[in-house]
Amino acid sequence: MATTKNWSPELEGLRGVASLWVFFGHIALLVNCKIPIIAVPKLGVDLFILLSGYLMTKNYIERQDKEPWGSWQTIMTFWLRRYFRIAPLYYVMLFVALLAGHFLGDMRQIIADAFPSTATETSRYSDLSFFNVLAHLTFVFGDLPQYAYNTALPDWSIGLEMQYYLLFPFIMLLTLRWGFAGALVAIMVLDILGRYLLPGLYTAFPMPSMILIKLHVFIAGMLMAEAVRQRRLLFVVLALLAPVVSALMNIRMDSTQIFFEALMILGMTGVLWPYQQAGLVQRLFSVPRSLLSNRIFTWLGDVSYSVYLLHLLLVMPIIALLLHHSHLAMYSSGARYLITVGLCFPVVYLLATALHRYIEMRGIALGKRIIKNATVRERELERN
Hints:
Blueprint: H1 10-30, H2 41-62, H3 72-99, H4 101-114, H5 130-137, H6 156-178, H7 180-197, H8 199-203, H9 211-230, H10 233-239, H11 241-249, H12 255-272, H13 280-293, H14 295-302, H15 304-326, H16 333-383
């Protein structure tokens, strides 16, 4: 994988942790194993969102000399880069999910029959209507409550991510005018105001796929990037406003989850902070930094996007087959959880590795070629 200036290998490891969290969390939910924190996969998604805000800001600032923020070419290049990072693999997995929708719905119903508390509306898995397919192909589904949670994929966050991509270049331009801290805190305040001025909009979505519901978490990632770049604790303090915003917005998060959101911000900042000298804090974070930088965790990070899109398409049938043929429901919750993880992990991660290599990376390479060709044409036009 290509690296950027001042790349921190811990970032890949953190992505790996986020994907593991979602993977383990969804299995815990599906087999009705109530493991504290682990069984809350949306916190893993929040970690992905923090990483998105951090990485986009870091890379955008580092490219500023070659890609000035006020240029439309820069904005178009950013959008193309991000589109080809997300879209090729997503389209493949969307096709598979829709094609197998009826089968996946049947498998999911078997799970719901065994564990009624896990039940969901399975008809959404097989919605092949024109508008549902079009909304997903164009990535606008995250802003449409009736389509935001309407496939077997956990793709509500993909629609959310695309909204971040659309808005991000303009947020960065706003930081030039108002300053980094001023602009980002103002956006958080607007986020809270929107919750109380338009309450129906925020609660209309079955998942937090609309950007205003989770924009403050993304902004926290941006503030963390600036904290690490400038080595200023002020930006860490401002990032910690995100859990406060979550509490004030009061949407699908209890006090424990809000507390862990704050811990994620502090832990991620501690891991990525550029320590100038050895000290207690540096020693405290040296072990997780070393762990997140090793080959296993960087591999987990490499395949994290593929794992995220793929895992439910395999986990649901495996659990359903175990329930049908081996009476999995008769085991203790811990036993059925460990059995399911043990069977699903190698299958999901091996196939995700293949998807990463043969689809995800090739999509990224295609995007780079298109951007390069567009840049060459732009320069030729300028010379003429």
